[in-house]
Specification:
The protein is of the alpha+beta class. It is built from 42 helices and 16 strands. The strands form five sheets. Strands 8, 10, 11, 14, 15 and 16 form a six-stranded mixed sheet that branches. The termini are far apart. Pfam families: HEAT_2, INTS4_8HBD, INTS4_C. This is Integrator complex subunit 4. One of its GO terms (cellular component) is integrator complex.
């Protein structure tokens, strides 16, 4: 029976299939997804038996990234557990996680706003309420374009403003500051505003909490108002009086933000007129706020004093009268404006009352003055900077010095008045204050002229043991004007004392005297005979040209003589010879002078045309244009053209220092092309591999050199644009293709080539992604042909790929190099050690000796990271030292100074030997100048992403080596 039933069912099913042969069961589609975070979290939270366990699971979950597509499911699980949870600490953590998840890129958090608001209305814990408001703030800032949502969140904040917990009120005020606007008025529901009551503005609601009983809420209210200002909403002037009252608050943080509020309103309504309390007079708001902020320089908190002093420096619209009051400690009579004698006599005459002298104090004022209630502008501004410069905290003194500088730069009269105060700061006990005051005086040096007594105080700093202080003072003297010739003599005398005491300051002192002489030619002229020790009748002995002090005097005199043609008549014969010597040896310090004929026999004075730079630039462009024809020439002629052009560019860089960077860059690029051309010559590729092993070795060496040169081009030069970086990477790609071809010719088997070919194709793809905008400029180039053949290259075998690369390399065209506006080559000059001493540094073997390094760096980007010191010993050992970040100074734009110590150690030697010290510029291909890809967010995992190329690291020598004698002695037993 069962068999008969089975047979009948099968027949019926066969009929159905025959009647509907085209109707097939739909295939199930499989979708590969990552394990759901929400499911894992749900399982963990279900396993939690106590609030402590749940908190642990939540903490573990917070350390893991979450994908954007899983965020909504995770949020639902968290909310579901939130409703069931009775422990407030767990609810607090869930509320915090909701805010973090709302920041996930690709997730729109507006779908959870209703749930968060509903939990907010039912929550009893104040801490959890504050955290939920923080979550709403995060959601609101993530959706700034959603006006309705923003207004809804602001209304929620207004509703909870009357909460008894300060944290809730703080978050509500923060919400109003970050999301509130003036386009839609609000009704304050929390105060039970009746129907028909006029709606209130966000600013008026926030300002109500300026008088809150909790100082933390008062601080949050002012910060919320400042947040409105930062968002571009203009604050009401009526807030000014409330902010001024908060300047006298008992709490430091309230006074700190109140000072900021007063300053903001002074910038918005600087010309508005406000009344002076306890007086019938009126004043500009910026002057009134200046006085109030000046008064805060004497605040009990040093943090407030620093902030007030800094803000004073940015109030450039204040009246000169009030500005000058900051340097005067004299207070007015009874803190009120003193009336003139004419005004007092006129008042007595009109009243008909004069003192008879019969009654005691019959001329006393009729009104009683409460001095604590009277606070005019002068009582606040009087001596504000004097108090700031004499403050016990050095941070306040530095802030006062910087504020003085900012105000003095916009007012010459104020600069002259504050000069004495700044000069007095040169004697401060803190080195940082002294250094800052020197820098400040240099910035305002165009407005001032130093008197002899002031210069005496300034020059006393040359005795300072700090090298930074002394060199900063040399920079100050470079751009300072002095008043008399005695000042020049005094400065020269003190600088020569400095040179005797600190010989390492030699270059800085010579540079200082160069500018000092160029600025004061008429003051140097009367003292030239005294400086050069010349006599109108008697012949004086010739000074020693090896004396640094005599060179310093000559630098001063020759730079003054450039603007004073009559000075050369006071020179003796040996002075002209010394000029010729210094002009050749120290051309950067000694200018070209127009001297009488016959005085300089055998000295060639070059007087090139003013347009030499333009002609050099034109020569550079012509050379690059001429090289573009190299692809139309035969191999020998093309190589000769490249060699001649490289030689010309190298010579151009030596003659024209302004174009040295561009010329060296072009010469290095053409050298890469020349090496590539020689490696691809015909005879290398038309002969069997075993017969041309020597040429293969030559080509491999050329490839290695090209790769080194491309890293120099990319990391040693600054000012490059994206096109130049793309051309450098293109040359590097050609070199790597040639390296792949040579590897295939010398290695046997296909297996080793698979990984190399795959890596090369990844680099081609990376080039396309990084320089997609520059590809139109790469017509008929190697990379353009590769990209056209890319589908074929991916599918072909390694040996076929090698043949295609070999053909494409030989057929690719020459890329024209277009230079940007300015290219600078990174360079370094080691000042100390000089390498001239024959006295070896002696030390016991196995111990260490410190070698002082002083070097100047030009056009080096981020030297703290990439500059290293290399020490090469005679036995071939090499040590690379990374200087500390604090060893670098930045005296000017594009320039850095390295002052550090290198510790040397070695085993015993039989005789003194020389070590080499040089500076290296480190580089890493991972820190390339290619536009960096977007950084992944915290929830985006970067595991498994293929890297475009392995990180290549190396160093480039960019200074001449200096040789130093050292002698490790054997230890005594």
């Amino acid at each position: 029976m069962a068999a008969h039933l089975k047979k009948r069912v099968y027949e019926e099913f066969s009929k159905v299939v025959q009647q509907h042969p085209h109707e097939e069961a739909p295939a199930k589609k499989l979708r590969l997804t990552k394990p759901s975070k929400s499911a894992a979290l749900h399982i963990d939270l279900c396993k939690a038996s106590t609030p402590t366990d749940a908190l642990q699971y939540l903490l573990q979950f917070a350390r893991k990234p979450v994908e954007a597509e899983s965020v909504e499911g995770v949020v639902r699980i968290l909310l579901e557990h939130y409703y069931k949870e009775t422990d407030s600490s767990v609810r607090l953590k869930i509320a915090s996680l909701l805010g973090l998840l709302s920041k996930t890129q690709g997730f729109l958090p507006d779908c959870i706003v209703d749930d968060v608001i509903s939990t907010l209305n039912n929550e009893k814990s104040h801490q959890v309420l504050a955290q939920l408001l923080e979550t709403l703030l995060v959601i609101g800032t993530q959706l700034p374009e959603n006006t309705s949502l923003r207004h809804r969140l602001v209304e929620v904040a207004c509703k909870h403003l009357t909460d008894t917990y300060f944290g809730v009120r703080n978050k509500c005020l923060q919400l109003l500051g970050c999301l509130g606007s003036v386009d839609k008025p609000l009704a304050k529901e929390s105060e039970g505003v009746a129907a028909g009551t006029a709606p209130r503005d966000v600013q008026s609601i926030i300002s109500d909490y300026f008088d809150d009983q909790d100082p933390r809420v008062r601080t949050a209210a002012i910060k919320a108002m400042l947040q409105l200002h930062e968002r571009g909403i203009k604050l009401h002037q009526t807030i000014y009086s409330q902010a001024c009252k908060l300047l006298c608050d008992d709490y430091e943080q309230v006074r700190s933000v109140a000072v900021q509020m007063v300053w903001v309103l002074s910038q918005l309504y600087s010309e508005s007129i406000v009344p002076i309390p306890s007086s019938s007079e009126e004043i500009r708001l910026v002057d009134d706020s200046f006085g109030k902020i000046s008064h805060m320089v004497s605040d009990g908190s040093w943090v407030v004093r620093v902030q007030a002093a800094k803000l004073l420096g940015s109030m450039h619209q204040v009246s000169p009268h009030f500005l000058e009051q900051t340097l005067d400690k004299k207070l007015m009579s009874d803190l009120r404006r003193k009336r003139t004698a004419h005004e007092r006599a006129k008042e007595l005459y009109t009243s008909g009352e004069f003192s008879s002298g019969r009654k005691w104090a019959d001329d006393a004022p009729k009104e009683r003055v409460d001095t604590t209630a009277v606070n005019l502008i002068d009582s606040g501004a009087c001596g504000a900077f004097v108090h700031g410069l004499e403050d016990e905290m050095y941070e306040v003194r530095i802030a006062a010095v910087e504020a003085l500088c900012a105000l003095a730069q916009s007012s010459s009269s104020f600069a002259e008045k504050c000069l004495d105060f700044l000069v007095d700061m040169f004697n401060d006990e803190i080195e940082e204050v002294r250094l800052q005051s020197i820098h400040v005086l240099r910035q305002i040096s165009t407005h001032i002229t130093l008197r002899e007594d002031q210069l005496d105080t300034v020059l006393a700093v040359l005795e300072d043991s700090s090298r930074d202080i002394r060199e900063a003072l040399h920079e100050l003297l470079c751009c300072t004007n002095v008043s008399t010739k005695e000042c020049i003599q005094l400065a020269l005398l003190e600088l020569l004392k400095n040179l005797t005491k600190y010989p390492t300051d030699r270059n800085s002192i010579w540079k200082c005297l160069k500018f000092l002489g160029a600025r004061h030619p008429t003051l140097v002229l009367p003292i030239v005979p005294e400086l050069l020790s010349t006599h109108p009748y008697f012949d004086t002995p010739e000074p020693d040209m090896d004396d640094p002090a005599y060179i310093a005097v000559l630098v001063l005199v020759f730079n003054a003589a450039k603007s004073c043609p009559t000075m050369s008549a006071l020179f003796s014969d040996h002075t002209f010879r010394h000029y010729a010597y210094l002009r050749d040896s120290l051309s950067h310090l000694v200018p070209q002078l127009r001297l009488p004929c016959g005085k300089l026999s055998g000295v060639s004075e070059s007087s090139g045309p003013a347009s030499s730079l333009e002609s050099a630039q034109q020569f550079l462009q012509d050379s690059l244009s001429r090289v573009c024809t190299v692809q139309h020439l035969e191999a020998p002629g093309a190589q000769d053209l490249l060699e001649f052009t490289i030689r010309d560019l190298q010579r151009l860089g030596e003659l024209q220092t302004e174009l040295a960077g561009a010329a060296d860059f072009c010469a290095t690029y053409l050298r890469c092309q020349l090496l590539l051309m020689k490696a691809l010559q015909e005879k290398l590729w038309n002969v069997a591999v075993p017969l041309y092993l020597k040429q293969n070795a030559m080509a491999s060496a050329a490839v290695k050199q090209i790769l080194e040169e491309t890293y120099k081009l990319e990391f040693l030069y600054s000012g490059l644009e994206t096109r130049q970086v793309a051309i450098i990477h293109h040359v590097r790609l050609q070199a790597k293709a040639l390296q792949l071809v040579l590897t295939a010719r010398t290695r046997r088997g296909v297996e080793p080539l698979l990984g190399i070919c795959e890596k090369f194709l990844q680099e081609v793809d990376a080039f396309q992604r990084l320089f997609i905008t520059e590809l139109p400029h790469f017509q008929d180039s190697f990379v353009e042909k590769l990209l056209d053949l890319m589908p074929r290259l991916i599918a072909c075998k390694p040996l076929d790929l090698v043949k295609i690369l070999q053909t494409t390399l030989r057929q690719s065209g020459f890329l024209h190099l277009k230079l940007p506006e300015q290219i600078h080559r990174a360079s370094a000059t080691i000042i100390e050690p000089t390498g001239e001493s024959d006295n070896p540094l002696r030390f016991t073997s196995g111990l260490v000796v410190a070698l002082d390094i002083d070097a100047t760096l030009e056009h080096v980007q981020d030297p703290q990271t990439w500059v290293k010191v290399q020490v090469l010993y005679p036995d071939g050992q090499s040590h690379v030292i990374h200087p500390r970040p604090g060893d670098f100074r930045k005296p000017g734009p594009g320039r850095h100074r390295l002052i550090t110590q290198v510790y040397l150690s070695h085993s015993a030697w039989t005789e003194p030997c020389q070590i080499e010290v040089r500076l290296l510029l480190a580089y890493s291909s991972s820190a390339s100048r290619v536009p960096a890809p977007k950084t992944p967010a915290w929830n985006e995992s970067t595991e498994g992403l293929p890297s475009s190329e392995s990180s290549t690291e190396g160093t480039i020598p960019f200074s001449k080596p200096v040789k130093v004698f050292i002698m490790p002695k054997p230890a005594r037993r």
